[in-house]
Amino acid sequence: MSTLGGQLLRQRVTKDWYDWADTLTTGALNADHEVGAYQLLAAHGLAVPEVVAADHTAGNPLGRPLLVTRELAGSPFPEALAQACDAGERDALVRALGAYQARMHGIVMAAPGYFGRQGPFPGDWEHSNQSARAFYRALEILWRADEAAGTDPELVAAARAHAGRMRPRVEAAFVPPRFTHANFHALHFFAVRAPGGWAVTGVVDMEVALGGWPLCDVA
After folding, report:
1. How far is CA 112 from CA 26, 125, 131, 202, 209, in A?
2. Concatenated DSSP letters of 126-186
3. What is the reported pLDDT for 76?
4. pLDDT tens figures, 95-139
5. Which site among 122, 133, 190, 191 is 20 to 30 Å from 141 CA-CA?
6. Which of 36-45, 156-165, 206-215 has the lowest mean pLDDT?
């Protein structure tokens, strides 16, 4: 966090594990991806952070892609909830956040997967939240880890069987792909008391926002 003209700014730089020097990789496009996510939410009337600067190249003083936004008004949702005076106010805050999420998750995407300001990103890599195939692949990795850790084999077998029975419903839920935050934590949402009640001022950390299955956010 830094200041500019007395206003607080938040800055994000692409993480070291990305190949951010290669302009053709997701790493180099990460800043563009986050800006695209904010622009899409704003186009649907949702409050978002103001983007002050974005660069998906390494041609800047930091030497890597970056994103700078103005700090959101209010407090992260857990802090705002702690500030609520009574049950009625807490209920109103939760409903305000739920309404924001519903509008976000209601956005139908042109294609599953990552996207930027110019549309979907190319490539065949799949996030577990973007397709049923990738979702079940991720589940199988978890089950194998459970088996290796000594989890009761009957319990793992029951989980596999249940997931198998649910697969048609899961596959249907991915169509059409909808806006999915995919790194969904309560502290990413900011809220402030307004004259008419609580208002959500925005959500941060769009690093893995994609077209997929919004229920993954809720889970």
Report:
1. 15, 11, 7, 23, 11
2. --TTT-HHHHHHHHHHHHHHHHHTT--HHHHHHHHHHHHHHHHHHHHHTSS-EEE-SS--G
3. 96
4. 999 999 999 999 999 999 988 888 888 777 788 999 999 999 999
5. 122
6. 206-215
Answer for the pair 134, 128: CB distance below 8 angstroms, yes or no.
Answer: yes
H/E segment holding residue 80: helix 77-83
* CA-closest candidate to residue 215, choices 188, 167, 182, 168: 182
Q: Which amino acid is at 8?
A: L
The pair of three-digit structure tokens given for residue 216, joined into one six-digit string: 């993954």
Report residue 140 CA to chain centroid gap. 23
Listing DSSP states for 1-36 in one string gives: -EEETTEEEEEEE--TTS-TT-TTSTTTTHHHHHHH
Total Cβ atoms within 10 A of residue 22:
12
From CA 38, how far away is CA 139, in angstroms rounded?
Answer: 30
Rg of the chain over all Cα atoms, to the nearest angstrom: 20
Helix (H) and strand (E) counts for the chain?
6, 11
